[in-house]
Amino acid sequence: MFELTLMCPENRVGTLSDTLEALDALSVSIEDADAQTDAEQALFGEPGMPPPKTGWQRSRVSALYASEVLAKEALDLLQAQDFFADCQLLGMQAVAEQDWVRLTQSQFTPVEITPEFWIVPTWHEPPAQARIVIRLDPGLAFGTGTHPTTRMCLRWIAQRGHGDESTVNHALGRVLDYGCGSGILAIGAAKYGATDIDAVDIDDAAVESTVLNAQANQVHLKAGFPDAATGVYQTVLANILATPLKVLAPLLWSHVAPGGSLVLAGILGTQADELKAAYAPYCQLVISDQQEGWILMTASN
Ligand SMILES: C[S@@+](CC[C@H](N)C(=O)[O-])C[C@H]1O[C@@H](n2cnc3c(N)ncnc32)[C@H](O)[C@@H]1O
């Protein structure tokens, strides 16, 4: 295969990528040309907030073609377009054949939550010391266990749920996973003995993933949209982001049973005070864990 690599300004990236697709590129990928430099600008806002900008100031656009002849033909036609005056060819190079499936799989290896609790992709054998295992492959919904926010929630579940069969269920009680993504936290709670679990999300792909992942792990839970959360729960887990967590404060707290726990993640260390303030009318949030700049905040009812 042959790859064309091009540079273009923000106002040309849509036209350039559409034209490459129209010129039969097998794939077109777009990256921030200023990534990891002083000129890099963050693009992604939090859910419900407008993005700070709609595109990178400069994009590096790569297009794959089946052969050198096809790549050159596409380049000739591209260079004849008026808009291309603002763009630049960075290079054209052969791409070595790879086993892409194997390469992708190699990026996801078993994740240790505690020495006995592991998240393991289906193409790996669980490590010998793993006693509790969630089998999970990367999919459409967030939550593979690689992100620190997910890992801290799972570690909390493991600590709280740790015990023999007669005590684990009592420890976690009825569980609500609010913003379930792949369902990883709900499945983790089930693995640690919880039997009455609601997993909810605004994204239908997340609800679908949660159902499939729960089946694959042979655990029972109910997955649905947020209005499926009803009544109170001994454990309420929400790994979302600071802004929605602040908006959701009265709702999430209304679901925490007397004597129950609220566990919040998706919060940067620098956002601790604003979260404490947002939840102050209901409870006293404390920082119970931290990893790589992210914190876990919890409160008891
Ligand atoms: C960071 S992911 C967490 C996924 C998983 N629980 C984990 O810990 O890895 C956040 C999830 O929250 C969902 N979400 C965002 N805002 C939400 C809201 N207001 N109500 C319910 N779910 C929401 C997103 O769709 C996404 O699946």
Notable traits:
301 residues; alpha/beta; Alpha-Beta Plaits; Rossmann fold; 2 domains; four-stranded antiparallel β-sheet; 31% helix; 28% strand; elongated; binds S-adenosylmethionine; transferase; ribonucleoprotein
Characterise this structure:
The radius of gyration is 23 Å and the shape is elongated. Mean pLDDT is 91; it is low at 163-169. β13 (286-291) and β14 (294-300) form a beta hairpin. The chain has a seven-stranded mixed beta sheet with strand order 10-9-8-11-12-14-13, sandwiched between helices. With 301 residues, the chain is α/β, with parallel strands linked by helices. It contains ten helices and 14 strands. It folds into two domains: 2-97, Alpha-Beta Plaits (2-Layer Sandwich); 104-300, 3-Layer(aba) Sandwich (Rossmann fold). Helix content is 31%, strand content 28%. The N and C termini lie far apart (60 Å). Bound molecules: S-adenosylmethionine (SAM). S-adenosylmethionine (SAM) is lined by residues 47, 141-143, 150, 153, 178-181, 184-185, 201-203, 206, 226, 239-240, 244, 266. Residues 47, 141-143, 150, 153, 178-181, 184-185, 201-203, 206, 226, 239-240, 244, 266 line the site of S-adenosylmethionine (SAM).
Computed structural class: alpha/beta
Q: For the report, how would you describe the main beta sheet?
A: 7 strands, mixed
**β-strand number:** 14
What fraction of residues sit in β-strands?
25-35%
Q: Can you name the CATH architecture of the largest domain?
A: 3-Layer(aba) Sandwich
What would you call the quaternary organization?
single chain
Order of helices and strands: EHEEHEHEEEHHEHEHEEHHEHEE
Stretches where pLDDT is under 50 for at least 5 consecutive residues are: 163-169
State the domain count. Answer: 2
Query: Strand order of the main beta sheet, please?
Result: 10-9-8-11-12-14-13
* Mean pLDDT across residues: 91
Total helix count? 10
Shape by Cα distribution: elongated
Determine Rg (CA atoms, Å). Answer: 23 Å
